[in-house]
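Q: I have 459 residues here and want to know how they pack in 3D. Can you give me a structure?
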Amino acid sequence: MKILFVIHMLEFADHIALAFLSAIAKELNHSTYFCTLDHNDLNVMVDSIKPDIVAYSVNILGYHAIVEAHKEAKKRHKFISIMGGPHPTVSPYTFPESGMDAYCIGEGEYAFRDFLIKVQQGQSYDDVENLMTKKKTNPVRPLIKNLDELPIADRDLVLSNSYLKGTGKKTFYATRGCPFKCAYCCNSYYHEIYQGKGPMARRFSVERIIREIEHVKSRYRTDFIKFGDDLFVMKNDEWLQEFAEKYSQRVGVPFNCYLRFDSVDDGLLSLLKKAGCYSVHLSVDSTSKHVREKILKRQMRDVNILENLKKIRRHGIKTLVNYMLAVPESTLEDDLNTIELSRKAGVVYSSYGTTVPMERTELFKYCVDRKLIDPQTHKGDMTGCFKKSTLTCFNEKEKNIRYNIFLIGALVARLPLPLYKFGMVLIKMIPPNQIFKKIRKVFHRYNIMRVIYRIPAGS
């Protein structure tokens, strides 16, 4: 059979979920194709390929664009459709309106395998675990405990069929799942639906991930590696020790990864630096301990965030730090303090996002219960992360100042003291405007691509 994989948008990272699904399909001797709506015309591809199955993967953004494109494609050619990814898992109620033949809930590799076998044999797939169809909603199967049993991801699916083949940064995943249940993250819902079905956080073996990197590096330009895991490592353990040895000897490419502040110590940082770690990504979320612990439920041990940021810097590792603006019960001072924290700690880039409660999370329920959002109109539209807050607990002036922090807070944190004070005045006094938006766009792109990821110009 011919299977066309479709996503809404391809940004700066390979789509690892599709790579695994394509590998599953190829093990069954099917042909696979790739389409991203921001670079390809789905109708043209459907006309040309005439796929038997169109498999959509939808994250927290892009659902409406995918559904619209799907309904047009269905007019041109008959195929069976299935949607997977976070959207159908978190928002299964959208299934009737989507026009899909099936939704895949949760981890998809083995569900997709069983689905393909049923379709090829002309049998009903209504009873396949993890699938929602017009006739039935099935329970999820146990999580894949040994990740190494999965086939090697088909990285060629996306890399060979997109601009990413010529870019310097390549993305890999050494783990799967997050052990924590933060109130704002969909991972808390994954814990709920997979309760009793196996450990949520799992790792590939070091040898497995090194071999995957070697394969991609031998075929595609690889100047920098991003480990996109929710949490790359939690402690200095045998896995990290083995990784530091093998990565430095066999890969030797600078990399970025995610850490938690309460896992940062000299031993862990020394091993990461030995391996070739160039920069790390961490989340403070809020400078208010109350907000972090009681509202966002970060489940983080009490650590000195400023000192740990300085410690990372002493090891010669650059820092990218996430902050959430306009969290319920946060004060304006809490959000302004993020700029001062970054300045004191020498943070290379401060990444801001406006708080948008995601469906199925504890934060969403909190905001609905307190009438901070209207659940009928909100529907977890995550594009709000890049806009002014819509929560009713803040007045317009507070929203404007917080949005200014989003726009130019990262730049102001890097300014020398006299200009820093002037920048803080601008944030508080000047309404958000097109100049601030332009500054944010240029400063963000430069720092992420050239400083944090160290991608050469022109890549």
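Q: Anything worth noting?
A: Residues 434-452 form the longest helix (19 residues). The chain is about 40% helix and 15% strand.
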